[in-house]
Amino acid sequence: MSKILVVGGAGYIGSHVVKALQEAKHEVFILDNFCLGHREAAAVLGCTLDNGKLLEADLLKPDSLDTALQADGGGFDAVIHLAALSQVGESMQQPLMYYENNITGTLNLLKAMHQHGVKTFLFSSTAATYGNPNSSFTNDGKIPESHPTEPINPYGRTKLAIEWLLKDCAKAWGLTATALRYFNAAGNDATAIIGELHRPESHLIPYIMGALYGRHQPDGTLMQFKIFGDDYATPDGTCIRDYIHVSDLARAHVLAVERDIAEAGKQLSVYNVGTGRGFSVLEVVKGMEVALGREIPYEMGDRRAGDPDMLVADPSRIMADFGWKPERTTIDYISKDILKWTERLAAHSWNWPAN
Ligand code: UDP
Q: Is 333 a catalytic residue?
């Protein structure tokens, strides 16, 4: 059993990582500032201020990190860092906010870890570090980790800069770091006790569900589903992405952090976490229609700035090193899991459901 701090553990992916770590019998603490995370998510996972498993701190306030790393006598075996701003479109409009939040925040966290002797770091990186795939470096269109990293939006650039930072810290002070380059996380835990709730919502699958259930955005507009562009260089003209079930993604974190705790001094490892199978937006829509037995109305809209045509992982490295493979990743599982979660949300007026 290891003592692990999950930064951003009350967020969408973070809460699924916390659940997976708990199931693997680790002692898990959540650190969150609740700007995007949900107190209720932490509570349902048994992490509260009262029992000391929930630490309310802000990556932009170094003092609060110093206190957090001393929680319950300190001595964390690892930190898993998922607290970031992560919307491509927003990053194009507010680059300074992205650079400050993502890079300065991580810098502060690493400084505090260095000071407290925590030497294992698992980082939520992204496929957005690659930019537009270059066919000279892809395998059948799939992106291996050796593909050049030329992000085309500020979000991807902040994550890439952090990977460099990790490499330098690994060399300088023996940090063992792993960057997991996520492709498109989707779905939720099969129990639907935790799930995805963004305000506003912008991600494809929850957006479709919100539109189907008549959800409104925080500014009062009714969600109406639009496909962002049908003139991309793909067979049906809509963007292709590699959707990975969040529970499969969470399991990858458990494997990586356990390996890194056991084998210190490995420096920086980088892994794609995706399935190797891409779906166009239209294919997702059709797949969800079949799974849900409902028609999904849509309008064809303009391109969204910052979107590459196609992002599909070559996941061979993580499969070879960890024996990891996706188990719940199908549009069918994703749709049915998110259906349960959406019905709970809708029944609670789009607030986090009381459990
Ligand atoms: N997308 C869309 N309509 C929406 C939301 C997303 O057509 O309302 C498209 C988007 O352009 C991209 C894909 O769906 O091609 C996945 O977008 P998402 O925001 O879910 O994830 P991203 O790829 O930006 O991380």
A: no
Alpha helices in the chain (DSSP H): 12-23, 39-44, 62-68, 88-93, 95-98, 105-116, 154-173, 204-212, 246-262, 281-292, 316-322, 331-347
Minimum-distance ligand 1 atom for the alpha carbon of 301: 7
268 sits in which H/E element: strand 268-273
Q: What is the DSSP letter of 302?
A: P
Fold category of 3-347 in CATH: Rossmann fold (3.40.50)
Quick check: 306 pLDDT over 80? Answer: no
On the question of pLDDT at 355 being above 70, the answer is no
Enter the pTM of the model. 0.97
| Domain ranges for the chain | 3-347
Among 215, 221, 304, 309, the mutation site with the greatest number of ligand 1 atoms within 8 A of its Cβ is: 304
Tell me the pLDDT tens digit for each residue of 170-224: 999 999 999 999 999 999 999 999 999 999 999 999 999 999 999 999 999 999 9
Q: DSSP class of residue 210?
A: H
How do 54-56 and 240-241 pair as beta strands? unpaired
